[in-house]
Amino acid sequence: MKTHHRLSQGGPTALPRLFLLALCFFCGVVLGQVLAGRVPDATGDELKRYLSDYLALEGGNSAETGLSCLILYFRYPLLAFLLGFASIGAVLLPCTAVVFGTFLSFSVCCFTAAFGGDGVLLALAVFGLRCAVTLPVFFLLASSAWGRSMSLAAISLGRGRAPVVYGRDWWMTVFVCCGVLVVAVGADLAISPPLLRLALGRLFP
């Protein structure tokens, strides 16, 4: 019973789960690069218009801007958190890691394909801070949530009896992650627009 309890907490198998999720994410990165190779040459002009509209929106400092930034930061970590309460998360959490890697890689590759080496600076200005925060938060939540969702799946299939525990450590991790994400959103709204203006000024003097 003690072993089952530890497994429901995600103890001894946490590192292998993290490795498998990282592998899924890497597969998504490769898929994103493949898809980006099919993007037409006109993407550069579209990206330039998008970035100009983005800066105009950021300049307004509206509630819509803040809400949009919150969604961008919370979407994958929140999905990982919610899937930890459902047995289907045993399948959907690895899929989420693949999707995360695919969209991130696709976006970065579009910048580099359209603008060359300077596209790396643009990508860093747009995605740098967000990725530095959301990636570790996502993997931290997803690894723990995956263990719990697999335990729920085992119970639903009649292969597990120990209750799945969402204890103090789980909720403390969730609250800390939420706090980190909220602080990062505020920092992103303050830092990213000036960095993007500098990058655009270098690319389009």
General description of the model:
The chain is mainly α and about 200 residues long. It has one domain. Helix content is about 85%, strand content about 0%. It has 7 helices and no strands. The chain has helices spanning about 1-10, 15-35, 45-60, 65-85, 90-115, 120-155, 170-205. Helix 3 packs across helix 5. The radius of gyration is 20 Å and the shape is elongated. Residues about 1-10 have low confidence and may be disordered.
Series of H and E elements: HHHHHHH
Helix segment count? 7
Assign a percent range to the helix content.
over 70%
Shape: elongated
Oligomeric state of shown chains: single chain
End-to-end gap: 67 Å
Low-confidence stretches: 1-12
Question: For the report, how would you describe the main beta sheet?
Answer: none
Class derived from helix and strand content? mainly alpha
The residue-averaged pLDDT reads 83
Instruction: Bin the strand percentage.
Output: under 5%
Number of strands: 0
What is the rounded Rg? 20 Å
Count of discrete domains: 1
